Amino acid sequence: MCGNQMEKTILLLLSIATSISSTPVMTRQSLQRQKTREHFCANLLNFNNFYYSLEEQKNVTGIPADMSIHWKTGKIYFTLISDEMKMSLQVLNPSGEFDLIKVAGLGQSTCVDNLNDIVYLATDNGVYKYKDDGSIELFTALGEDVMYIAVTSDGSAMYIATWPQNRVHKITNDGQKQETFTAIPNGHGLTVDPRNNMYFVATKTSYILKNGYTVPIKIKGLPSDKMTGVFVSRSDEVFAMDENSNLYSVDPENSSAKHLGTFSVSGVNSFAMDSADNVLIGVKGAILKFNAYEQSPCPEYENSSKKGKRHSRKRKNKKRTTSTTPEPAEEEEEE
Ligand SMILES: *[C@@H]1O[C@H](CO)[C@@H](O)[C@H](O)[C@H]1NC(C)=O
Ligand SMILES: *[C@@H]1O[C@H](CO)[C@@H](O)[C@H](O)[C@H]1NC(C)=O
Ligand SMILES: *[C@@H]1O[C@H](CO)[C@@H](O)[C@H](O)[C@H]1NC(C)=O
């Protein structure tokens, strides 16, 4: 397949070369192909040691919230909030098809234990396990209204945030209650890193409750009223994103964040990363997928287009994400 592709490319290049040197005629098709590639290359983003490009936009009716990804299958689990504020749990399959997850009560959110390949559902009647065949099985917290769940990366413990008690419990994977974290007001955006530091969002501010501490603190270096949440990547790095798609890396050691770059999408409600560090962004009406390339997929553009790259890139980005209103997001620091 690769060889074939190469042959075609060479033939295309040859035909372009001959058409330039002999006749000034370029076929419409090859011109179109070249334009598509130019557009793709001009819109490449470069930060966080990756080149990113918008690969896909999947439209949804409503707002996707609390995305989590099963790394092995690439399935994206999320809560869809309809225009009437009704919630449903959904799966976006790699095939591009959506599945509705049927739960007994009201589905609040989902959480994937990627070590043990288990999908958990938070419902108004407890925590359920979701099986591949679409069936569900009660796991724990029967009778409690569970809003959010987080699972440790070794799968040994689960943190569950319940309502209206507004507290977070830690339970072992055999269901034993271990600890209660009353300092966490609600579990919105509840996330746990491999060192058992906990993260959550309250009034759009991201906090960290470090392992062994009782008082959560605001993460430094993040805007104080625009945060969507924190995500722990497959390589155990902690990232945060704000409403304007600014991506930050979080260092739990000093509870500080560093701005990495922006995807130039506004109105971000949720973000996640798949096993290849591709970035999924949920906005009203769509889930956007930005592919992450370790090396530039446009090496020929690297040398020539450096000058003025930032500007042309931002302007062109406005056209790409039509369902949202991208804006040149500025880094916002709290003092
Ligand atoms: C936090 O630690 C990281 C890594 O050591 C460092 O790069 C960063 O400057 C520190 N941030 C603050 C605010 O001290
Ligand atoms: C761009 O620069 C790299 C490294 O300096 C070089 O290998 C490559 O051939 C250059 N590409 C073009 C199109 O000039
Ligand atoms: C998704 O929505 C955007 C605008 O909101 C529209 O331009 C685009 O065609 C839609 N895509 C599909 C596949 O329906």
Percentage of residues assigned to helices: 10-25%
Tally of contiguous helical segments:
4
Helix vs. strand class:
alpha+beta
Question: Which architecture does the CATH hierarchy give at level 2?
Answer: 6 Propeller
Bound molecules: 2-acetamido-2-deoxy-beta-D-glucopyranose
Average residue-wise pLDDT: 85
Distance between the termini: 54 Å
Strand content: 35-45%
CATH class, anyone? Mainly Beta
CATH topology: Neuraminidase
Low-confidence runs of at least 5 consecutive residues: 13-22, 305-335
What pattern of helices and strands is seen along the backbone?
HHEEEEEEEEEEEEEEEEEEEEEEEEEHH
CATH homologous superfamily caption? TolB, C-terminal domain
Q: What's the count of strands?
A: 25
Quick recap of the structure?
With 335 residues, the chain is of the alpha+beta class. Helices cover 16% and strands 43% of the residues. The chain has a single domain (60-294), classed as Neuraminidase, CATH 2.120.10.30.
